[in-house]
Write a structure and sequence with these properties.
With 419 residues, the chain is an alpha/beta fold. The longest helix has 19 residues, at 344-362. The chain starts with a helix and ends in a 21-residue tail after the last helix. The protein has helices spanning 2-13, 17-30, 49-66, 82-91, 97-103, 137-140, 150-160, 170-178, 184-194, 199-209, 215-221, 228-236, 245-262, 288-297, 319-323, 329-339, 344-362, 377-386, 395-398, and strands at 38-41, 73-78, 104-105, 117-119, 130-135, 195-197, 268-272, 304-308, 390-391. α1 (2-13) packs antiparallel against α3 and α13 (245-262) runs parallel beside α14.
Length: 419
């Protein structure tokens, strides 16, 4: 344990002062039992938000070790694409070299549907302290446009044939989900040797298969009534013909993804450049992304959520937009609702102070108003309220003269300058 803590201290000591200050601020909020455990780090581009996230992981892990908590830290990193996921997943793993091999577990999933199976070959070392997995919205949250890759479709097929009613129709279901996959026979021959079904997710999936589909879902598939179970059964019996089988496969995949999201466990979720997929945060909507995200982020207890974004909103709004409340106000409201976990007292206090500050700013059009007469009370109250959930460092705070077009230097006037 002491060697691991020493490695973590090296990571924390490598942070710049302003990065460490952000880590400390986030940790104070995470350690506050009354806090929502949701924070946005909005540092300006190039100031190292990923490094800050790494520091937060190091602090969380250090706290676990010092409290003699034997469970390893689970981190799920959500970003816009697979390339970025692979790159930053390694950066976030805290440990390097031999210590990485000793303390960091291999990722157990890269897509939500993969949670439905357990790889029997994965053996946790008793030295394992950290596991970092990654997800992208395209492969795990927005599932309406695809029926999954070959491995996901095979997992769905294997989940379905655990249902007694489908056992006699395994060949028909195999044909439905195979859809030209060359490796399908290899999957069939090796699956039981390497994998087992997650029983909890299987139970949830069976329950959802029996739920009646909505009119919109039925229309997409091209049937008039039924649940996924009855439609699949009738298809296997030849009682239903599907003009577009891909739509049925897509729906079975998104249904399983929701079950997997419900059972996804992590100590820390990191959403990188979250503004690219804000629908994940708007859990009031009924679109697919929001429904699955709702299952992921509704976890109670000690689960923490860290949002990263240099540009969560546009930097400038026009006067007429401010007057009509059409700047980025709606987006900001949704974000604050998410960060505060719909803390009504906080939201109302913020809105009250924001309205007063806005009226104060708009009054500057009156030439008789003297800026020196303005009180900073409302500005400071807005800042104080936002500091509870948002941390931001700008380059001007940490780099003198960063925006200068020309560099000026003082030299001694001697013979060199006389020619």
């Amino acid at each position: 344990m002491f060697k691991a803590i020493a490695h973590l201290n090296v990571t924390l000591e490598s942070l710049k002062d302003f990065q460490k200050a952000t880590v400390d601020s986030v940790m104070r909020s995470f350690n506050d039992s009354k806090h929502s455990n949701r924070i946005l780090v909005a540092d300006e581009v190039g100031l190292g938000k990923t490094i800050v996230a790494k520091g937060i992981i190091a602090e969380l892990l250090k706290n676990k070790l010092l409290s003699e908590n034997t469970k390893f830290l689970k981190v799920t990193y959500i970003c816009s694409n697979l390339t970025l996921a692979e790159e930053n997943k390694k950066k976030l793993a805290v440990f390097q070299g031999d210590s990485h091999k000793k303390y960091v577990a291999e990722p157990t999933f890269g897509r939500l549907v993969e949670l439905a199976v357990i790889d029997k070959r994965v053996k946790r070392k008793n030295t394992t302290l950290l596991e970092v997995n990654s997800l992208t919205p395209a492969t795990s949250f927005n599932l309406t446009s695809g029926h999954g890759n070959k491995w996901e479709r095979f997992i769905i097929y294997r989940m379905l044939i655990q249902y007694k009613v489908f056992v006699p129709h395994s060949k028909k279901l195999s044909e439905l989900f195979r859809d030209g996959v060359m490796e399908w026979d290899w999957y069939e021959n090796t699956f039981d040797n390497y994998y087992e079904i997650n029983k909890t997710i299987l139970s949830d999936y069976k329950a959802m298969l029996d739920m009646p589909l909505s009119p919109e879902q039925l229309e997409k598939i091209g049937v008039e009534r039924g649940s996924l179970r009855t439609i699949l059964e009738e298809y296997c019996l030849g009682l239903v013909e599907l003009s577009k089988p891909i739509r049925l496969r897509t729906l079975t995949r998104s249904t399983l993804a929701r079950c997997c999201a419900k059972n996804l466990q992590a100590d820390l979720f990191i959403l990188d450049e979250f503004q690219r997929f804000q629908s994940l945060l708007n859990t009031d909507q009924d679109n697919e992304e929001s429904l699955i995200a709702r299952e992921v982020f509704k976890k109670s207890g000690e689960t923490k959520i860290l949002l990263l974004s240099a540009t969560p909103f546009k930097a400038l709004s026009r006067l007429d937009e401010d007057e009509q409340n059409e700047a980025h106000l709606d987006e900001l409201r949704k974000l604050l609702q998410f960060l505060s976990d719909n803390n009504i007292v906080f939201i109302e206090s913020y809105e009250k102070e924001r309205e007063k500050l806005l009226r104060q700013i708009l009054s500057l059009r009156d030439k008789s108003i003297n800026l020196s007469d303005f009180s900073s009370e409302h500005k400071e109250m807005v800042e104080q309220l936002l500091h509870s959930y948002i941390c931001r460092t700008e380059r001007s705070q940490v780099s003198a003269g960063f925006d200068a077009v020309f560099a000026s230097s003082m030299f001694e006037c001697n013979n060199t300058f006389s020619h």
